[in-house]
Each structure stands twice: as structure tokens, then as C-alpha cells.
Amino acid sequence: MNHEFDPASFPQPDPADPSARIIPPRPRRILVVDDEAPARILASRVFSEAGFEVVTAQSGFECIEQFRKRPNWFDLILLDFSMPFMDGAETFRRLRVISPTVVVLLSTGFMAQVENRIERMVAAGLDGVILKPHRPDELLAKVNGILQRVKMSRVGCVAGDMATSA
Question: Among 43, 105, 115, 142, which residue has the least CB neighbours within 10 Å?
Fold first, then answer.
């Protein structure tokens, strides 16, 4: 009995049929904000290797500038808390003015000293906090977890909206 694979024996999709076109999912996009170059470089490498499109910024000002240009482009912003001139709390506040739904993960090595400020940020919609130094695998896991949670909550909102409008 011959079991050779013959691709011609399978029906071929009609290229004119729009439902036959498979659109690959776009890569996830992240803005990495840190005033320390080694931290930016490491995070950029970790996320690039995981398939993200990565944009970096070295200050809160640069972050706001990048985000203002494309407020719906980034899936998540990894934001350092301790930066000169405009710290993570002020940067977060300004990002939320531009887009109340921006997804932000705060990265800090000074949790004890700034805990009350971070609590206020969480109350204002901060999506998570990760302590420095962090390992690449835990950083990626935290970001993926937040993105999955956000995706599920948005799907839930759409399903809820559809149920109430029916």
C-alpha cells in the first residue's frame, strides 16, 4: 500500500477569498525606559529575542515624546522608577493623561523607599511592579503575564459589551 503525500489531493484555498488569507499576528511592541544604558540594552535584547519589537528611551521626557507620537502602538511600557529630572511616577502620570489605558510595568530597585508612591500608582492603574535586579526569564514572564491578563480583560469587556447590546 502506497502512503505517499500528494499535496494536490488536498483542496487548495482560493486566493480571491479573503477568509482564505491568513494574516500573521503582529509582533508585540514594548517601550523600554531606563536611564541606565546596560539595563536598556539587556531588556532590549531579551525582548527582541522573544519576538517583540522594541523601542528604547533613556528618560521620562523621551518616553513621553515616543508615546505621544504613537499612543496606540505599544502593547506595554517597561518604566524605570528612578530617573533624573522626571521619575517613573511623573512619567506614568503623564502617560495616563495621553492614554488612560496605557499598560505600564514599573521596574525599581528601591521598593522600600518608594512603597507609598508605588501604591498610589497602582491605585491609578499601574499594571505591575518588578524589582531590580531581575533575571531575563522573570522579566519576560512578568511582561507576558501582564499582556495576557490585559488581553483577557479586554476580550471580557468586548464580550460583555456584546451581551449588553444584544
Answer: 115
Q: Tell me the C-alpha distance between 159 and 140, whole Å.
A: 28
Per-block mean pLDDT, blocks of 10 residues, the chain (166 long): 52 59 80 95 95 96 96 95 93 96 92 80 93 92 94 66 45
- Alpha helices by DSSP H, listed for the chain, are 37-49, 60-69, 88-98, 111-123, 136-165
pTM over 0.85, yes/no:
no
In the chain the domains, ranked by start, together with CATH numbers, are 25-165 (3.40.50.2300)
Task: Say how far apart CA 94 and CA 96 lie, in whole Å.
Answer: 5
